[in-house]
Structure formats: C-alpha cells, structure tokens
Write a structure and sequence with these properties.
Number of strands of chain B: 12
Structural class of chain A: alpha/beta
Structural class of chain B: alpha/beta
Helix content of chain B: 25-40%
Shape of chain B: globular
Largest interface: A-B, 28 and 27 residues
Radius of gyration of chain A: 17 Å
Number of helices of chain B: 12
Distance between the termini of chain B: 37 Å
Radius of gyration of chain B: 19 Å
Largest sheet of chain A: 5 strands, parallel
Strand order of the largest sheet of chain B: 2-1-3-4-6-5-10
Oligomer: heterodimer
C-alpha cells in the first residue's frame, strides 16, 4: 500500500538503493549507471508513494533495470540472494529486465528496445474495460523513448480511448544514446507535444527531488479528467555523483575502484 | 479465406468473452459482422501496427486472447519486433492474422505482398504459423489457434477451393492426394496449383500431394517418409522465398533423418522481371503456376 509522504524516509530509501545499485554496477563492471541514477527517485516515488498492489508498472527505458531491481528489492519482491546474481551467468537480472511468461514479481514485461513501454502500458490500461479491474498503470519513459513513433501511436490511442488510468512519466534528462536530445532530435516543446496528443500534462521541475515529484503526483491524484496523464520530469543524468552528472559517457562506462569509492563517498556525504 | 475467418471469429466471440479483436484499420466488406457482434471488444487501433501488437500483448497478459488483424505484409514486418519481444518472448496469447499471404494482393504491388513472412515469424520463440491450404480448412485452424494458448500467425490466402477433392481430416502435414511416382509437398493454397497440374497429366494421379499447414515443421510424419521412400522424388512448392521457408525446413529434417531423395524446389523468386501483375502473373514468374509445376513433375518422373 502507498505510504504517506515523508521526504526524510524517501531519502533514506534512496540512499540505501543508490549504494546497493552502485555496488551491483561495480561488481558487474557494468554501464548504464547514469541512466539509473537519473530515474531512481521517480521509481522510488511511484513504487512507494503511488502504487497499490494491483497497479502496474512498465519500465520503458529498460536500460535502467538496475534501478528497478534495487527498488523491487527494497519492496521485498527481489531477494538479497537474487539481487547478487545481477549480470552473472544464469541470472534473471540481466542488464535489461527479463522477458518470459512471468519472470519476476514487479516486472510486467521485459524491455530494452525503446518505444515499446507506452504501448504495453496502454494495453494494460485498456484491459480494465474488459476485466472490470480498476488499476492504475505507470510507465517510465526516457527522453530517447520519445523519438520512437510507436510511443506516439500509443499516446494517440490512449487519449482517443480516454484511458485516464494511464500515467506516463518522461525522465527528461536531455541526454540520449549518442548526444544531447536538442542536438539529436529537438523535441521541445515536449510538454506541448504531449498536450497536443491529448494528455493532461504535469511539469515536474526537478525529478530528482521527492518534493517536486510529490507536488506533480498530488495534482494527478486529484484530477478528475478522463485524459491520460503525463509527467515531464526534468532530471539530471547521473544525479548525485558529481563526475557522472550530465556526462554522456556515463550512459556506458563502468566504475574503477577509485571512481567507485568517490561515488560512495559522495552519496554518504549527502 | 477471410470470409470463413470472419464467420468463425463471429461464432467463437459469442461464446468466448475473453476474445478481444484488434484491427489495423482494415477489414472493409469483411469484418463488419465481427465488429457488430463483438461490440467494445472489437477495436480499430488505426494505422499503428506496432502499438496494436504491444497493446495486445498487455491485454493478453491480463488473461485475454487477442487477435490482431491486418493484411499479411503490414502485420508481419513493421511490427516484427513487437511480435518478437512483447508477444513471443513473453509467450502471450496473441494471434496475428494476415490476409493475402504470398502474392495474394497481386496488382496491388510488392508493398502488399508477403513472401518472407513465414521466414520472419516462424523463427520467433513459441510462435506457430498456420497456413490453410483451402477455405475448408480455415474454420478448423482458427478454432485450433484460438483454443491453443500462445502466439500464432495465421496466413490467409485468396479464395482457395479444393473443388472435387475429398479432404482428409486436418493435420499440420497431411496427404491430400494419393498417387505414387512423385511426392509433392506444398505450403498452403499453392498445392491447388499442383492439383491443377496433375489434372493436366494423362497418367492419372502420378503424385502424392502433401499439404503443410503449420510452420515450422518440428518433425517428419511417417506417412511423408513412407511416400518419399517409395518415390525417391520430392517436389517442394511454396509461395514464399527460399530463405526460411518450407524448403529449407523440410530439407534439413530429411537430411537429419537420413531420407534420401531427388529434390526440386519451386518458390517465390520475388520480381524477376521487375514488373507487376495479378497473383497468377507472379506465380508464373516464379514457376509456381500449374504449367510450371507440371513440367517440374514430369522432369522428376523422367529423372531430369
């Protein structure tokens, strides 16, 4: 069940998740660290503040899987033993969430190819009309996800069918796979685009601050609109670790011993 | 075949509340009755096949059986990744239905043909491709497809009737005509051209004709192996490119099982003249018309 807003408690959860995630990435010598740090606050907020047991979550930016794994671990859905298998041969915890009939509690679909998540979330939202269930569906997209035509196909469908139980959250860190979003495909004004596609749009000025997320989601929770919702969350890629912040290379690089120690020190000092 | 398909879905939908139908904005003069019978369970997803198939996967994840309809090329290729990942890798109960497989849409042009669909879709995990050989098979195949949980692709052909032939009961590989000197194995309605070819050969019924209606083939049937051991001459025909089609699938199985036979393979060759025409025109361009098949049969009989 969703908890009441306590910023201090959420920050404690975040610190625990960041340290766990950094250890996983270090142990695996894996990249995508900055992508996970960009959206960890959003994942924590959605899972601890918004979601009830029956609600669905789709991670469209599958490359942030380690952030999701640590959050699901904190929720009790991934055991400590399983978490330690991250990246190892024979694991379910691959770099992107696993596919399969029902691979893991809390993971509705394996993702990793961008542009699928909003369609999957839209399908879940639509299914309530046939099942009589009443759940909310949350989908976390990257800004790169917004390049994909299928994302907008889903957006048009969701709006046309008044899927008010759908909440899309864009992790808008303005850095994608091989450049700044404004240089690759400038999607601004992004809010206007989502609005034009029929979404009720909520701006979150700092998606790496729980208070800012709380403000946006509190407004969503009060909405009586039949429109699907979209939160455009301004975030920082690599948030919280100085040498990673807004650096494209930390989409890919692993940490060496020294950088890992610096990262842990910075997090512990926050 | 889509008339038979629509009638079967209409009947099934009245008994099966779990059936949800998506179309990619196609079905004029074909799906109106399905739409009227299914009410809000019939969804026109618009010209957005990628979204349609991912949505269908999520709807299936909630315990429903989702059918996604379009013409064969539109449902097989653009959303291939959605089918691969969201449906097949997750083993969801989603059935793609593609009308006009092969050169079925004839003069509509190459954008509307699907001669590589089985190669793509039969290679995906958990997926079964159904290729009815005639209108009479459609109802049975649709019922089997809907009652079997998991991904599937149904390739519908155009108005294929077996005429005077008395059909044997449906199975994924079955003998349609009992002959003797040559074994013909065809995928889907192209076997009707082989039947026509046989009618033009004075020596009545010189060939066993097998229809393959499910791909990929997992294993050979005893009946087919017996036929090949007797004839030692095999003609494979398919309205599909050689790569990833029936020929490659069957030839590998024959080699793995030590079945030795002479082999001829007639398949879709694309657009050898770079020109366009009816389905019959394209079949003839690929030597898949009855006359070319007859020549191939006679070549095999004569040992050429």
């Amino acid at each position: 069940m969703a908890m009441t807003f306590e910023e201090k408690k959420l920050k404690e959860i975040k610190k625990e998740c960041v340290l766990k995630m950094l250890a996983l990435y270090k142990g695996a010598q894996a990249g995508h660290i900055a992508s996970s740090l960009s959206c960890l606050d959003i994942l924590i907020y959605i899972h601890f503040m918004q979601m009830n047991e029956q609600d669905k979550f789709v991670l469209s930016k599958g490359h942030a899987a380690a952030a999701l794994y640590t959050v699901l671990h904190k929720c009790g859905k991934i055991s400590p033993e399983m978490l330690q298998t991250f990246y190892k041969d024979g694991t379910l915890l691959s770099a992107h969430p696993p596919c399969g009939e029902d691979p893991l509690a809390g993971i509705t679909f394996g993702t990793g190819s961008l542009g699928h998540g909003l369609s999957l979330a839209t399908g879940f939202a639509l299914s309530n009309r046939y099942s009589g269930k009443k759940f909310q569906v949350y989908c976390l997209l990257s800004d790169g996800d917004c390049n994909a035509g299928s994302t907008w196909e889903a957006g048009m469908f969701a709006a046309h069918h008044d899927l008010s139980n759908l909440v899309a959250v864009v992790d808008n860190n303005r850095l994608q796979g091989f450049g700044k979003t404004e240089e690759v495909i400038d999607m601004e004004p992004l809010e206007d685009k989502w609005r034009a596609f029929g979404f009720e749009v909520y701006k979150c000025s700092d998606g790496n601050e729980f208070r800012s997320l709380h403000e946006a989601f509190s407004r969503i929770n009060k909405s009586e609109s039949t429109m699907p919702k979209c939160v455009i969350a301004s975030t920082t890629k690599g948030s919280g670790i100085s040498y990673m912040e807004n650096k494209l290379e930390w989409h890919y690089l692993p940490m060496d011993d020294e950088l890992y120690e610096t990262a842990v020190k910075e997090i512990n000092e926050q | 075949m889509r008339k038979e398909f629509a009638a079967t879905i209409e009947a099934l939908a009245s008994r099966n509340e779990k059936l949800i139908f998506f179309t990619g904005d196609l079905g004029f003069m074909a799906l109106e009755n399905v739409r009227d019978a299914m009410g809000d369970r019939f969804i026109n997803a618009g010209v957005s096949e990628q979204n349609m198939i991912s949505m269908a996967a999520a709807v299936a994840a909630e315990g429903f059986t989702a059918i996604c309809y379009s013409i064969a090329p539109f449902v097989a290729f653009r959303p291939a990744e959605q089918m691969r990942i969201d449906v097949c890798l997750h083993n969801k109960d989603v059935k793609l239905v593609g009308n006009g497989g092969g050169y079925g849409y004839g003069i509509m042009g190459s954008t509307h043909h699907a001669i590589e669909d089985i190669a793509v879709l039969s290679s995906f995990q958990n997926n079964t491709c159904f290729i009815p050989c005639c209108n009479e098979d459609v109802e049975q195949i649709v019922k089997k497809m809907v009652s079997t949980r998991g991904p599937a692709y149904l390739r519908l052909g155009y108005g294929a009737k077996t005429g005077e032939i008395r059909l044997t009961p449906y199975s994924p590989i079955r003998k349609i005509i009992d002959g003797g000197s040559v074994t013909i194995v065809g995928m889907g309605p192209i076997i009707l051209n082989a039947i026509e070819a046989l009618e033009a050969i004075p020596d009545a019924e010189p060939a066993d004709i097998f229809a393959v209606s499910e791909m990929p083939i997992g294993e050979l049937t005893e009946e087919l192996v017996n036929s090949l051991e007797r004839t030692g001459k095999l003609l494979i025909i398919e309205e599909h490119v050689a790569r990833g089609g029936l020929g490659e699938n069957l030839a590998l199985l024959l080699m793995q099982n030590g079945v030795d036979t002479k082999l001829k393979h007639l398949c879709a060759r694309g657009y050898p003249e770079g020109l366009y025409g009816s389905q019959g025109y394209h079949q003839a361009s690929s030597s898949l018309d009855a006359r070319s098949i007859r020549e191939a049969i006679l070549d095999l009989i004569d040992g050429r």
